[in-house]
Design brief:
single chain, Transcription Regulator spoIIAA, seven-stranded mixed β-sheet, six-stranded mixed β-sheet, globular
Length: 409
Amino acid sequence: MAVAKVTIKKGREKPIRNRHPWIFSGAVSIAANAVDGRLVTVVDHKDRFLARGYWNSKSQIQVRVLTWEDETIDDAWWQRMLGRAWQSRAQNHAGAELSANRACRIVNAENDYMPGLVLDRYGNRVVLQAQTLFVDRHKEKIADILHSDFDAEQVFERSDIDLRRQEGLHPAVGALVGGPPPDRLLLNEGALYHVDIVRGHKTGFYLDQRRNRQKLHELVQASASASDGPPSLLNLFSYSGGFAIAAQRDSDLRAVNVDSSRAALELAEKNFALNEYDKPSSDACAEHIQADGFDYLRYCVGEGARFDYVVLDPPKFAQHKRQIARAARGYKDLNLSAFRLVKEGGYMMTFSCSGAVSRDLFQKIVFAALADSGRQAQIVEQLSAAPDHPVALTFPEGEYLKGLLLRVY
């Protein structure tokens, strides 16, 4: 087979030399013998080696770089890269998340130099997400390595994200190694959670918010003595109630979980019961309300409702740069209403998971919402994904989750 080679236009090679993993169509001069979903060698206009990655003509990102070294991408490469990612989790403070009923992200796509691949471990099960055509063609090999080298008793595929359509792929869900998973797994983060890896969001749970759930728990505990009566929490886009469950641990907090999905709220109700917050001896309670988050915020503003804590964790508003302006309007609308609902001296956690919206831009949007609300607020802490979701220094887009912990006056 002829060598597949992608030649970069003169003057467009700097990002590649700086080890950015994406090569856009506008930087490509010639793609000789390139086949979608197959490896290509990337060279500059003088035919000098730059990188090796994989090609997809259907995507705006036509090459995703696997290595900037002139090396072979084979089974040994996959074993080495998967091992490196695994060891990095085992050796740092995320290592505790690898125990029997805890969970951890073990491969974070481009940020672990394996673009298009996400792996989340739940105890002895690994959930695999193949985002691109190349990874889709290698998923069985990856699953076999996980089973043989990393003691994964089951590898279950959850490749049902929108990005696959841009790669010309259909959704794929099912077992790659081992039989079908149980209806729900049990996750212990101090509080207990049911996790549905077959039908749940992402790979079943928002592992990236683990540290921020713990932060909210600590905040509620520290503020308990200053509260008049049971504290209250509004948890918007609540999914299975993660933030509310964490906040209610060891407290009598009253929570309102709001989500547009009835299935998500039913899972939240089960999580609430799992933690025995609904026992007669418990003062904690929760409402689970099916509603559009924007509409419910406006309703609460109209009713004059006030909460000690408000959490805004909406879905991704911007898939790409063309959607940033629309996303900014959405974030401002949400945060403007939320500022009006926080009690004097209360706290707000607000997030964006849109990779196209930078941390600086998100903070400016929240500032604009604050200015229009007539309130004052302090940034108590910048929030981000848990440490098992590292960000490659050469890939700022990898910091998709950014947030602010604010005290509002």
